[in-house]
Structures are given as C-alpha cells and as structure tokens.
Amino acid sequence: MKNLTEFIAKSLVDNPDQVDVKQTRQSNRVRLELSVSKEDMGRVIGKGGRVANAIRILLRVAAEREGLQVTLDVLEP
Questions:
Q1: Does the predicted TM-score (pTM) go above 0.85?
Q2: SS3 category, 67
Q3: What is the pLDDT of residue 8?
Q4: Which residues does 51 contact at the CB level (< 8 Å), separation at least 6?
Q5: Read out DSSP for 26-41?
Q6: Is 64 helix (H, G, I), strand (E, B) or coil?
Q7: Phi/psi of residue 52, nearest 5 degrees
Q8: Which helix (H) or strand (E) segment is 57 a member of?
Q9: CB of 10 within 8 A of CB of 49?
Q10: What is the mean pLDDT of residues 35-42?
Q11: pLDDT in tens, 19-36
C-alpha cells in the first residue's frame, strides 16, 4: 500500500523528493499518512478533493485484494 501511494503521489507532484508516506497497521486495517510540500497540496487533493478520492479508491481496491481495509489521510504541511 505504501509503495503504491508513493508512486501515485510522486507522479503527481513537482517535488517528488518531498513526498513522505507513513504506514501503520492494526490487524487488517492499514492507515496511510501522506505529506507533500505546501506547493503540491493542490495537485494531490485536486478540485473538490477529486484526486485524493481517486487515490483512495485505488488503494481500497488494492487492499481488498489482500483482505485489508485502508484509509488515506493527506496531512497539512
């Protein structure tokens, strides 16, 4: 999950070196925290949150294949 999130985020932003993803796991739940530079927040969130929601959908599909539940939080810089 972490690698997929990093790949997607780095593909979207202008400063891929500032992309940081932290993963915590409790039994079958995975929580991902994504942080990017302040300038790239708009690219990751998108208009009305569409990009962030699309990333969440992709993660949910990948997690379900492994029998997991995943949540993604985009952290403010």
A1: yes
A2: coil
A3: 96
A4: 12, 43, 44, 45
A5: ETTEEEEEEE--GGGH
A6: helix
A7: -60, -40
A8: helix 50-65
A9: no
A10: 95
A11: 999 999 999 999 999 999
pLDDT (0 to 100) of residue 77: 82
Q: What angle do CA 57, 15, 5 make, to 5 degrees?
A: 25
pLDDT tens for each residue of 42-69? 999 999 999 999 999 999 999 999 999 9
Which residues is 59 bridged to in the sheet? Answer: none
Residue in the structure block whose two tokens are 């403010």: 76
pLDDT at 54: 96
69: left (phi over 0), alpha (psi -120 to 50) or beta: beta
The total number of structural domains in the chain stands at 1
Give the type of residue at 40.
Answer: D
CB atoms under 10 Å from CB of 55, counted, come to 22
Cα–Cα distance between 4 and 11 in angstroms, integer? 11
Residue 36: exposed, middle, or buried by beta-carbon count in 10 A (0-12, 13-18, 19+)? buried
